[in-house]
Write a structure and sequence with these properties.
The protein is an alpha/beta fold. The chain has helices at 8-11, 24-30, 35-45, 48-55, 62-72, 117-128, 142-148, 164-176, 195-200, 210-218, 220-227, 244-251, 260-267, 280-289, 310-321, 336-344, 354-386, 391-395, and strands at residues 74-76, 91-93, 96-98, 102-104, 131-134, 153-158, 181-185, 271-277, 293-296, 326-330, 349-352, 399-401. Helix 3 packs antiparallel against helix 17. The protein binds flavin mononucleotide.
């Protein structure tokens, strides 16, 4: 073979130039090929205590690890030679369409990840045509979220405190601000023991200490963001101090029972979703109480350690109560394929928490958008490759856990 010396005119067109219309951060986000990559970028961009608060789970973290592991054990039997040119990823939840089969889960202290916080997440949800849940532990008020993101389908997540009037007030305000569903979280009788928070000395709000000062030098961008924007406080609570676990234990009512659903109904005219169901028995009890939906969830492994795996009980729950109440699932979802698997096992919809928070830490609103784009693309591609162009067909796809 005869070789020749390459000429500059041959080489120059091969050298890619960065797209200057995009910021350096946007380009970095585009190079993230998965939610796991976004997680790694997030790790670099925020202090360790903040990353650990988001990424961590309770005690040995086995509840979270096992949920993630369960998705690795999923096995589809892809069907081919089906027309998958047109794909419809939409589902209907609580009587309204959701353009993608997932919902952005309620998460506390969201502005700690990046000051743009909940309004940024809600705006991305609106663009994607999906619902978003604002937490009682949110750092943006009910009214402000409604104002900043009027087009988002907003759900309000309620933690019931010992003083019931406080919860009644929150329900009244959420209703007045156009939130159409209430998510009652029931897996938090007390706060889970989150060892990373204890080790890192993370308190809510974060305190400046000598060791944090050293951290400031390594994450000046995050500290600048926090110190030059509105102070970080809970928008719906005035109790602060201690780790999140301590805080939950101090303010939440460990005496909640099924009887409280009637109290919720007398204060809330919209749909009621109960989140934190971990057994077939409790799923049945909720269906008997007439709740509109349940979320099979162990709070992303942040509460009970060594809990069972929601995905493993999903098929039985879907069969037993799926015709009486909508069944959603969350915990450990890191890819669009995980989402498709949950739907194939019988979930009506899926909630994602950490995935979008990694996006928020990595790149604010653009980061959340990148995560939603990655998940949507992975859902679409998985649906096409297993031969199920609609969610109805995904629900009858052949799938098993190995
Ligand atoms: C940082 C963080 C804060 C959370 N805060 C709340 C909360 O305030 N209320 C609630 O009901 N669930 C909360 N959750 C749980 C999520 O709603 C959801 O159940 C969980 O994140 C799903 O697991 P995943 O993160 O693996 O997707 C939180 C989760 C995380 C990661």
């Amino acid at each position: 073979m005869r070789r020749r010396v390459p000429r500059p005119a041959d080489i120059l067109p091969l050298i890619g130039t960065p797209d200057r219309s995009k910021s350096r951060l946007q380009r970095r986000l585009e190079r993230c090929a998965s939610v796991w990559d976004v997680r790694e970028l997030a790790r670099k961009r925020v202090p360790k205590a903040v990353f650990d608060y988001t990424d961590g789970a309770a005690m040995s973290e086995s509840s979270l690890d096992r949920s993630r592991d369960a998705y690795r054990r999923v096995e589809f039997t892809p069907r081919v030679m089906r027309d998958v040119a047109e794909v419809d990823m939409g589902i209907e939840v609580l009587g309204r369409p959701n353009a993608l089969p997932f919902i952005l889960a309620p998460t506390g202290f969201t502005r700690m990840m990046q000051s743009v916080g909940e309004p940024a997440v809600a705006r991305v949800a609106a663009e994607a045509g999906i619902a978003y849940g604002l937490s009682t532990l949110g750092t943006t008020s009910i009214e402000r979220l409604a104002q900043e993101s009027p087009d988002t389908r907003r759900w309000f997540q309620l933690y019931v405190s010992r003083e019931r009037e406080r919860a009644e007030d929150l329900m009244r305000r959420a209703q007045a601000s156009g939130f159409d569903a209430l998510i009652l979280t029931v897996d938090t009788a007390v706060g889970g023991i989150r060892r990373r928070e204890v080790r890192n000395g993370l308190t809510i709000p974060p305190r400046l200490r000598l060791s944090t000062m050293a951290e400031m030098a390594t994450h000046p961008r995050w500290w600048f963001d926090v110190l030059t924007t509105e102070p970080l406080t809970f928008a719906s609570l005035d109790s602060t101090g201690g780790t999140v676990g301590d805080l939950l234990t101090r303010i939440f009512d460990p005496g909640i029972t099924g009887a409280d659903i009637a109290w919720i109904r007398s204060n809330w005219a919209g749909k009621v979703v109960v989140k934190g169901i971990q057994s077939v028995e409790d799923a049945t009890a909720c269906a008997d109480l007439g709740v509109d939906a349940i979320v099979l969830s162990n709070h992303g492994g942040r509460q009970a350690d060594m809990g069972n795996v929601p995905l493993e009980i999903l098929p039985q729950v879907a069969v037993e109560v799926g015709d009486r109440t909508e069944v959603y699932i969350d915990g450990g979802i890191m890819s669009g394929t995980d989402i498709v698997a949950a739907l194939a096992f019988g979930a009506r919809g899926v909630l994602v928490g950490r995935a979008y928070l990694y996006g928020l830490m990595a790149g604010g609103e653009d980061g959340v958008r990148r995560v939603v784009d990655i998940l949507a693309k992975e859902v679409r591609t998985t649906m096409q490759l297993i031969g199920a162009p609609t969610i109805e067909e995904v629900r009858s796809a052949a799938v098993r856990l190995r």
